[in-house]
């Protein structure tokens, strides 16, 4: 089968740190304690949406790579870094890494995600927490790891969420527009995609032990928990939403939960603007 | 099963409006002239009209690409949008949804998996690298890699901001707008195979060139330490070139056309000399496509390859090396053998 998850790191941000700080720390923590070969980390993909200072170039992943202490640099001498966006992009990035691992082009890859309000106080409704997360993957053995990926796009709901920055009235502002129906549509699309994916993979929904999902929009993961099952993964204890790193947060929580650690088959459910649904099936290593 | 990847077709789009280097120099407020045309080799570049943006550039380039393709849009299985700039509807920088989703709808690629990928000027070649992997593993049969670079707002802002020839915004004066698309496909006999692709990011140099949305002007602003980024680029490139040549079982003198990232004629010729010294040999031709389009960021290699095809400069079996230098610092090499594309291009244009 495919890639297995080796380690997960979360960096909480309650003190107004930049994504450069929290993202780099997440990368560093995720590598900590992992025995690396001489080749270190081969690929680093950033899926954060909202960067510090509306950065456009270079890829934020390269800045996170460059912002590591000397001790980590040795592990990143051969790293290839870039940014990827696909709704909530962690699952698509895992699909890319899984492929490069499968084709033997890399031995280890990492996804890092997080967001900040690009310029503090200059947005209409930036309501996300600035936490960051990272996931390290490497090639797994037989009968473990990722076994399939799936994407559906629902363009009829493309206007439900759109965000942009624009310089107007001598101010550069981030504008986020989210319709009242966005949550309902995300739920509707995710349910349909899950059914499509299960059918494609020939898997019964009862065979899924755990669903790990995006944490945005608010209420999405809670609904999935009610809909599909026994395991509730509701991380939303705060008023603000987890965004790009939400799925990694949920994954970390599942890992920490002893009961969930013993689960066999996991489905990752990410949903984002577009509406874009990215799914993955994962068999936990024994 | 592992499949080969080929370039099935490619397309470009250039806005009609021409902005000459002389016109830029005339607007600069410098006591000593910059001699930009002499230094860069750029006579002119294209600039978007008020109704054009990243999406229209990319969409028009993809449409051009599909004209040469045997696939219909409905048969496209993957779309990767790779540009740095994401301006849609004037100078609004779009964060979400991903522009690949908008493009998928405009083109009618309704079956396609899609995502955006951003890697500075190496964006399109990174898209080729990633898309090829999906094709080689048999996940998809084809992949449309597209970019639309609407970057002359950086030029406009630089003209206002530059007060000295040593300004870090001077590199912004070389930029031009363009769209480019390349359709990758599972190899069939006689197609143009991708022989190798190798990439590395030297993150310790990631701050040598940075661009942001401007806080005081409409559009973007870019600051580049030109001398430093050029030096470290050509210093580290031979290792990646060697790896790619080794993967393709080739030597540099077996490369017929080397297309480096298009920044300035001085940078291209300095790189050529460095590589010739290092390898003791050189590719048959080193391509400079700057004169009419300038530095078009992630689209520059595809624009140059398209021009070679249309000018019938390529022969069957020619090997082309696309060498990317990009902020990050990203160094990437893609080697492709040209086969069937020769018959398709150079007519009706």
Could you explain the architecture of this structure?
The complex is a heterodimer of chains A (286) and B (349). Chain A has 286 residues and is of the alpha/beta class. Chain A folds into 2 domains: 3-142, Thiolase/Chalcone synthase (Peroxisomal Thiolase, Chain A, domain 1); 147-283, Thiolase/Chalcone synthase (Peroxisomal Thiolase, Chain A, domain 1). Chain A has 8 helices and 12 strands. A 5-stranded mixed β-sheet of chain A has the order 1-6-5-2-4, with helices on both faces. In chain A, helix 1 packs across helix 2. Mean pLDDT of chain A is 89; it is low at 234-238. In chain B, helix 3 crosses helix 4 (99-107) and helix 7 (226-247) crosses helix 8. Chain B is globular and about 60 Å long. Chain B contains 11 helices and 15 strands. Chain B is of the alpha/beta class and 349 residues long. In chain B, the strands form 3 sheets. A 10-stranded mixed β-sheet of chain B has the order 6-4-7-8-1-9-15-14-12-13, with helices on both faces.
Give the count of helical stretches of chain A.
8
State the total count of DSSP E strands of chain A. 12
Low-confidence stretches of chain A: 234-238
Q: What is the structural class of chain A?
A: alpha/beta
Q: What's the Cα radius of gyration of chain A? A: 18 Å
* Helix-residue proportion of chain B: 25-40%
Instruction: Count helical runs of chain B.
Output: 11
The H-and-E topology of chain A, N to C, reads as EHEEHHEHEEEEEHEHHHEE
CATH level 1 name of the largest domain in chain A: Alpha Beta
Query: Could you describe the largest sheet of chain A, including whether it forms a barrel?
Result: 5 strands, mixed
Largest sheet of chain B, in brief, is:
10 strands, mixed
CATH architecture of the largest domain in chain A: 3-Layer(aba) Sandwich
The count of domains of chain A is 2
Note the beta-strand portion of chain A.
Answer: 25-35%
């Amino acid at each position: 089968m495919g890639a297995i998850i080796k380690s997960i790191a979360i960096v909480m941000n309650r003190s107004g740190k930049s994504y450069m700080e929290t993202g780099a720390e997440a990368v560093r923590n995720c590598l900590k304690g992992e025995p690396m070969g001489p080749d270190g980390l081969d690929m680093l993909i950033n899926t954060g949406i909202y960067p510090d200072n509306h950065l456009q170039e270079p890829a934020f992943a390269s800045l996170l790579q460059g912002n590591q202490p000397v001790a980590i640099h040795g592990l990143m001498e051969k790293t290839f870094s870039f940014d990827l966006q696909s709704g909530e992009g962690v699952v698509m990035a895992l699909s890319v890494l899984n492929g490069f691992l499968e084709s033997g082009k890399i031995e280890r890859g990492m996804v890092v995600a997080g967001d900040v309000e690009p310029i503090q106080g200059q947005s209409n409704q930036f309501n996300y927490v600035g936490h960051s997360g990272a996931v390290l993957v490497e090639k797994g053995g037989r009968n473990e790891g990722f076994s399939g990926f799936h994407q559906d796009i629902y363009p009829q709901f493309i206007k439900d969420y759109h965000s942009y920055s624009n310089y107007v009235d001598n101010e550069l502002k981030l504008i986020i527009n989210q319709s009242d129906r966005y949550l309902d549509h995300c739920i509707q699309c995710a349910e349909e995609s899950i059914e499509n994916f299960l059918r494609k993979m020939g898997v019964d929904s009862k065979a899924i032990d755990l669903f790990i999902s995006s944490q945005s929009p608010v209420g999405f993961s809670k609904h999935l928990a009610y809909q599909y099952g026994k395991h509730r993964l509701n991380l939303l204890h705060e008023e603000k939403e987890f965004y790009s790193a939400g799925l990694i947060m949920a994954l970390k929580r599942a890992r920490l939960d002893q009961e969930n650690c013993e689960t066999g088959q996991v489905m990752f459910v990410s949903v984002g603007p577009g509406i874009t649904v990215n799914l993955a099936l994962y068999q936990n290593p024994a | 099963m592992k499949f080969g990847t080929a370039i099935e077709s490619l397309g470009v789009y250039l806005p009609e409006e021409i902005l000459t280097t002389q016109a830029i120099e005339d607007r600069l407020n410098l006591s000593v002239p910059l001699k930009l045309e002499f230094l860069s080799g750029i006579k002119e570049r294209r600039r978007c009209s008020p109704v054009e943006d990243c999406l229209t550039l990319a969409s028009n380039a993809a449409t051009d690409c599909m004209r040469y393709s045997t696939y219909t849009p409905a048969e496209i299985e993957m779309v990767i949008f790779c540009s740095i700039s994401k301006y849609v509807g004037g100078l609004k920088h779009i964060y979400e949804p991903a522009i690949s989703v908008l493009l998928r709808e405009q083109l009618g690629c309704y079956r396609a998996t899609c995502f955006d990928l951003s890697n500075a000027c190496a964006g399109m070649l990174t898209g080729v690298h990633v898309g090829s992997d999906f094709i080689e593993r048999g996940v998809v049969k084809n992949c449309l890699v597209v970019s639309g670079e609407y970057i002359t707002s950086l030029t406009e802002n630089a003209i206002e901001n530059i007060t000295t020839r040593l300004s870090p915004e001077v590199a912004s004066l070389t930029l031009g707008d363009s769209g480019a698309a390349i359709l990758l496909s599972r190899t069939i006999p006689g197609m143009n195979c991708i022989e190798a692709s190798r990439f590395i990011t030297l993150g310790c140099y990631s701050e040598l060139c940075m661009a942001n949305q401007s806080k005081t002007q409409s559009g973007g602003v870019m600051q580049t330490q030109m001398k430093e980024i050029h030096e470290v680029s050509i210093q580290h490139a031979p290792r990646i070139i060697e790896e790619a040549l080794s993967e393709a079982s080739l030597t540099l003198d077996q490369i017929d056309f080397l297309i480096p990232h298009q920044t300035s004629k001085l940078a291209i010729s300095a790189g050529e000399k460095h590589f010739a010294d290092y390898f003791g040999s050189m590719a048959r031709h080193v391509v400079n496509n700057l004169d009419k389009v300038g530095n078009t960021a992630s689209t520059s290699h595809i624009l140059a390859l398209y021009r070679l095809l249309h000018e019938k400069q390529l022969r069957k079996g020619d090997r082309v090396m696309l060498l990317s230098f990009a902020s990050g610092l990203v160094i990437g090499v893609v080697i492709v053998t040209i086969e069937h594309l020769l018959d398709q291009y150079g007519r009706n244009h």
